[in-house]
């Protein structure tokens, strides 16, 4: 079930979202019909899923009555998995630079609504929300819901404009190592596929051929950043 809470900004179903990825990850997605969701405590940013300083001070007040709270939260964190997307009406040059290499890579364009429809599993608690970028030394993160800490990041990451699908797989008895792969309807998830604007022609032809051979129906677009100059 997708939950909503008035304390956080919930993106509408028509919000346009993007995922920038390399060819190997894209092929894995197409071949397996499964989308990878990373375990929340395995992100490169060690602040992921942790508390801000004001929040931690509030939690310390509660530990007298509930001394096991922090240990329980740390254990639960291992069963929270996340799929990260970039919210934007347009292609992002910065995202191409950050998430792809060697002028090769792909960008999946979708919407929140289509991504919800595409998710076939897991049948677990899920939350869709925009990430809030805050000062961890000064600002409070609400902690009356276990999902909330995963919707906050440091201001240094503000350029990401991130939207997250957060899933609690605690009750599914899964072996969550680096993350889990969840079954997904590819044609419902991908509205358009954009190929890196600086990629070579052989790379473009390869991507188009692979998609056609595998029988997928989504549109492959020329990158807007590759448009001809008018002068």
SSE topology:
Blueprint: E1 2-3, E2 16-21, H1 23-32, E3 34-39, H2 53-62, H3 69-77, E4 80-87, H4 93-99, E5 106-111, H5 112-118, E6 125-130, E7 132-134, E8 152-154, E9 162-168, E10 179-183, H6 186-189, E11 192-195, H7 201-213, E12 219-221
Parallel strand pairs: 1-6, 7-8, 11-12
Antiparallel strand pairs: 2-4, 2-5, 3-4, 3-10, 4-9, 5-11, 6-9
Protein name: DUF2971 domain-containing protein
Organism: Paenimyroides marinum
Short key terms for the protein model shown above:
231 residues; disordered N terminus; alpha+beta; 10-stranded mixed β-sheet; two-stranded parallel ribbon
Question: Care to describe what's here?
Answer:
The structure is a single chain. The chain has one domain (2-225). 26% of the residues lie in helices and 26% in strands. The chain has helices at residues 23-32, 53-62, 69-77, 93-99, 112-118, 186-189, 201-213; strands spanning 2-3, 16-21, 34-39, 80-87, 106-111, 125-130, 132-134, 152-154, 162-168, 179-183, 192-195, 219-221. β11 (192-195), α7 (201-213) and β12 form a beta-alpha-beta unit. It is globular, with a radius of gyration of 19 Å.
Number of separate domains: 1
CA-based shape: globular
Which secondary-structure class do the elements indicate? alpha+beta
Radius of gyration: 19 Å
H/E series, N to C?
Answer: EEHEHHEHEHEEEEEHEHE
**What is the rounded distance between the termini?**
52 Å
Mean pLDDT: 88
Structure in a nutshell:
It comes from Paenimyroides marinum. The chain has 231 residues and is an alpha+beta fold. It is 26% helix and 26% strand.
């Amino acid at each position: 079930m997708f939950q909503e809470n008035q304390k956080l900004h919930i993106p509408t179903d028509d919000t346009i979202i993007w995922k920038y990825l390399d060819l190997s990850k894209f092929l894995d997605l197409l071949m397996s019909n499964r989308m990878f969701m990373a375990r929340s405590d395995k992100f490169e940013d060690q602040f992921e899923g942790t508390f801000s300083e004001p929040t931690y001070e509030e939690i310390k007040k509660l530990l007298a009555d509930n001394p096991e709270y922090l240990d329980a939260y740390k254990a639960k964190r291992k069963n929270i998995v996340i799929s990260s997307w970039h919210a934007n009406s347009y292609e992002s040059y910065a995202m191409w630079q950050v998430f792809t290499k060697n002028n090769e890579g792909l960008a999946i364009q979708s919407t929140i609504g289509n991504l919800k429809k595409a998710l076939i599993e897991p049948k677990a608690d899920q939350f869709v929300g925009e990430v809030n970028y805050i000062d961890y030394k000064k600002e409070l993160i609400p902690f009356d819901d276990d999902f909330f800490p995963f919707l906050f990041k440091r201001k240094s990451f503000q350029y990401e404009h991130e939207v997250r699908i957060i899933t609690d797989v605690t009750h599914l008895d899964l072996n969550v190592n680096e993350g889990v792969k969840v079954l997904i309807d590819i044609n419902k998830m991908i509205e358009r596929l954009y190929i890196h604007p600086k990629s070579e022609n052989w790379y473009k032809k390869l991507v188009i051929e692979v998609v056609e051979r595998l029988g997928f129906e989504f549109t492959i677009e020329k990158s807007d950043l590759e448009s001809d100059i008018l002068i």
